[in-house]
Amino acid sequence: MATTAIIGAKALAKGLITPTGLVTELPEIKRVELVSFKNLIFGGHETRRSSFKQSVGQLEDTGINIKPQLLSKLGNGIKGIERDIKIGVTSNPTRGKSLQKTVQRLIKDITHFRKRHSLKNVIVVNLASTEPPVKEGSHTRTLTGFESALSKNKKDLLPPSCLYAYAAFKSGCPYINFTPSAGSSIPALRELARQLHLPHTGNDGKTGETLVKSALAPMFNYRALNVLSWQGYNILGNSDGRVLNNPKARESKVQSKNTTLTNILGYKPHSYVGIDYVPSLGDWKTAWDFIHFEGFLNTRMSMQFTWQGCDSILAAPLVLDLIRLVELSHRRGESGELPHLALFFKQPIGSNISDLHHQWLIFSKYILEKVSRKCS
Amino acid sequence: MATTAIIGAKALAKGLITPTGLVTELPEIKRVELVSFKNLIFGGHETRRSSFKQSVGQLEDTGINIKPQLLSKLGNGIKGIERDIKIGVTSNPTRGKSLQKTVQRLIKDITHFRKRHSLKNVIVVNLASTEPPVKEGSHTRTLTGFESALSKNKKDLLPPSCLYAYAAFKSGCPYINFTPSAGSSIPALRELARQLHLPHTGNDGKTGETLVKSALAPMFNYRALNVLSWQGYNILGNSDGRVLNNPKARESKVQSKNTTLTNILGYKPHSYVGIDYVPSLGDWKTAWDFIHFEGFLNTRMSMQFTWQGCDSILAAPLVLDLIRLVELSHRRGESGELPHLALFFKQPIGSNISDLHHQWLIFSKYILEKVSRKCS
Amino acid sequence: MATTAIIGAKALAKGLITPTGLVTELPEIKRVELVSFKNLIFGGHETRRSSFKQSVGQLEDTGINIKPQLLSKLGNGIKGIERDIKIGVTSNPTRGKSLQKTVQRLIKDITHFRKRHSLKNVIVVNLASTEPPVKEGSHTRTLTGFESALSKNKKDLLPPSCLYAYAAFKSGCPYINFTPSAGSSIPALRELARQLHLPHTGNDGKTGETLVKSALAPMFNYRALNVLSWQGYNILGNSDGRVLNNPKARESKVQSKNTTLTNILGYKPHSYVGIDYVPSLGDWKTAWDFIHFEGFLNTRMSMQFTWQGCDSILAAPLVLDLIRLVELSHRRGESGELPHLALFFKQPIGSNISDLHHQWLIFSKYILEKVSRKCS
Amino acid sequence: MATTAIIGAKALAKGLITPTGLVTELPEIKRVELVSFKNLIFGGHETRRSSFKQSVGQLEDTGINIKPQLLSKLGNGIKGIERDIKIGVTSNPTRGKSLQKTVQRLIKDITHFRKRHSLKNVIVVNLASTEPPVKEGSHTRTLTGFESALSKNKKDLLPPSCLYAYAAFKSGCPYINFTPSAGSSIPALRELARQLHLPHTGNDGKTGETLVKSALAPMFNYRALNVLSWQGYNILGNSDGRVLNNPKARESKVQSKNTTLTNILGYKPHSYVGIDYVPSLGDWKTAWDFIHFEGFLNTRMSMQFTWQGCDSILAAPLVLDLIRLVELSHRRGESGELPHLALFFKQPIGSNISDLHHQWLIFSKYILEKVSRKCS
Fold it and tell me: Contact D297/C8, CB-based, under 8 Å?
């Protein structure tokens, strides 16, 4: 996903591709002063054992078809990046340095990156695979509790996504949590963001089945149709799929997907979200949803949909959109959760609006206000 | 559809069924003072050669499963209705009385019905099968032109749906056009409605594939995804399906369905709406839609949905909703087209909003204003 | 399922319904001398707490639409049956009588039933819900082992399906195992059937997703297409669905469904069979299968199917078919497993042919031989 | 399709790809002495205005993803081919030379091609777009009639596919008609093939929806399920799709597809085959089939399938298979229609077997006989 986003941003900067899939390039949205693609510099942490070049090579194996011509035109723009990619932190609690040391390393990496490129603004984005749900406790509830667990090196309590969010904030950077992992969504870190006047947003980019669900579910309300059951099955074959085959990691994802329906309908129908790993699909996720509903005179009817999308292709432009929108917020002095970005997430931090259309209205209104302030 | 609506209204009046499928029974909507189901009296014109009792008997053959217990409980409530059902006007231009005579008969039937039951308000609803598109000309453009064609007995220019709308208005009644036929949507009759301060609404109840389409299409805009093709295939087996097997009648329907997409997306993708007659399906319509779209880095993806609904069961409650909402408008002195009812139609008269969510916002706002006016 | 089969048989005996769904009524099959529906007498064991009359009443709740007129015409034919239905044996090992006593009771019930109606031939059919897989051991491998476990009252080793099969054989009756439970398929009981010269057949009636799979999978072989993944998801809401929501019971079912694909393709693609309980569906099972395959020049393609069938309606006629075909075998002196009946099962005992077309060829050939022997 | 077949054959000859999709490379089939891919030489007629190199370039635009590495490895093997590709004959009756001259040119081209490469055997294959159905008359019924129309230059009676078949036979070559056009299937040309002892086969390669249909339909027979309706909708975007958007050409295709169902079921359910042009799909054909059927107790159930395949990728290996199998027949002295090849066609010449499994049995038996004759 990161590789796709970087290639896309470079291609956009050079005008080599159309901005299809980018919300921030819609005519009504691009009127706000967003950072241009030319001014985006990428660096990061890689948790897999592959170089950026290898990741580019692997795109084709997962079914992402980037034309060789495009890659060769980007040649120089991409070459330098390897230097800015460091080894990422994973959740193996028995290995490696203490949590304190880890956080210090993260802060150092961010700070060096900022200095090397003389950057005004650095945005930290979590695109790593899903972690199991975090145990709740004083370490999630208050900043003091969090920092105490950190100094006591409680590796089983503080997952990498939280360490990254903490390090980002401590480095003066906004944080975007594109995964269903805890990240900055725990009260302890929301407290820190407020203290330091930093914006942050998440959780879990809404790209496929849940996107459709959040567009479709309101229809049943508008027609007073009673949803009896909503069964959803997702099959996918990328590393995300492999991780989600692990029941613990799946739990975070399914929780993230499940709230949508109840939030929109206002009641809880029988529902299920399955995620299964099908290696041959690569990055192409297929979802089948079956919706059983009741209408007039208690007649039962049904609809089903199949979604066949490429995960990274759907997610990458949203990552770029979020970077630009969070950078805007930071520049404008906005801080804390950014509820106007609920549109982009399965489990928006600081918002309980799941209805896609409602989310769009809130986002549009925010943009309109920004634009009119600019004009006045 | 009419039979289902009447049975449903009678069952609602006696509290025998839940109001599933009725928009006007949603908690936030029912706060306006709508006519109660107990106060609704039904009569009408039947264009087929079957009595009301026979129509009830045929419901099961078309796959509508109304429990015998319910019917026996309604016994008395339904018996009287036969007296109020007259022979309907169809579009055979070579047969029957002159247009003037026909219109006079319609006005007489409406007036007698109103008197017999001492009704405050009579609402005329068109639920007949789809007519071919009407030829445009002075008879559609101005009231003078229309009345001139009427007096010259131009049977090929003025279809039954227009005669019914004209007769309704001349009898002081609001008119609801639930079909894709011309009805009151031609400028000539919109002029008459304005003159006589009567409300009217239409065209073509939005119950199935188009409903889903209008809920789903905005999603592609919100994500800047480019819809390349949207193919829709409808198969159905009721008399509506038989009529739509006729290419001329289908034309009206397809026109009605086609505008939705372009209106919502703001551009015209390759699209197609097929309607085919499959007798074994009876009243159960199945629609399959295939949507081909382009995302980031010009990657092509797709989604498909299958809708399996019972036409009459989906339409009947909307007919009751519209009767109640148009009656409200009439009582409150509103006249002309009722754009706040766009939510209910494939081709709303007086509105070019096709996006279901936008339509809902407009409708909700209208209701809220009515409620606050009531409270203040 | 049993209720539906009995009502169907009675209606067939009276000529009230067409024999749609009955293999034994196909013109080419009915030429063998099968027992007529008039000569079938039904009795049985009920494991639920409901009378036959109540079961009939529940059919509608599960979405099986038997016309009230049909039921009233069957009135007398059905009334008597209650007397022949006894309380069934379930798998609660802590309760009830010893295994020996239970088997004696089963034998007594069968014997009385045979005497009361002066029957030539009694066929025992297992239609109870799926049991968890049986533990293998000497009790499954040899008759001596089985009878030793029986006399030692090893309730956790011998599930009801095996006790019923044992009791059937000991009463001189053929046995049909329509479920994925062990039944007569364990070597110990196959030994007993051979000893007593009794025919038996099973396991697990092939009615829906697996039926389609076994018709479709050979196509990929014929075209040298390489199946990469075959994912199947079943959702259903009857008591079978409730039982299969239990992971242990599901194991039996999934095992039964899984062998089909490997047997037909000759290799093992990535595959999965999910079964989920969706109460609102009642007896209507919906299955979605997604097949990912590779063709020429390593191009990946896919197909998907959705099956929407009513479980009891699909299974009931097969139960009647099997009763007639096993009765024929018994009358003709055939014994042991009946591999020509593989056509009817997901996991045929005594056959490793899973390809539906191959199964049909074997069955047709068997019938043809029976017919020609009859003629000569 | 031709381009894909040639690239595939060249890649197979060099061992660069696995033989997925090739029936003649199945272990049980390849035991007969088929011509090796190394010994296949390609030439042909191109009816479009594009060179072979351009056609290769266009593959990607239509969604066929052949790796650049593969193409570069084939470099030399492909270069020479341009010389052997001449301008093809299309059906514009007002333009060009007389029919006699055209046939003479075709014969000359075939003869030169044979000589230039010193070939033992030349097989002519028709892969051109679908022609409208041919008018029946003495020109289709007898060879004399055909040759009379030829000499009288009746351009509206004799379509290109028939001219090619005629020229092939007159040049001593077998003919394969992979399209639904008339080709060698008219009695006049079947007469010629018999006279000259030449084998020929067709019509219309069975690659997608009809393939699935012919695998699935027998299942309904085996279970005595009554098919009420079978609706099929095909959408595709290649030049074949563009041609089939023309109602006249579509007629041939739909006729070809329609016989399958009635042949297999033994009765004619309500059925429909739609073909629509959706440019964005390129060579990727998507088909949706909806099957409505009746089971026990007159209960109606349904299944649907979606097929998403790449037309050329599915067809190209069959073209290679047919070339090898027809070459085998020719070498072995077989002539006339080749009913054992029905497996490959929607409308097999000389066979009324449409059931895929039955076709496979016939084909397997033929191969087995060939193999045993070889061994003995």
Answer: yes
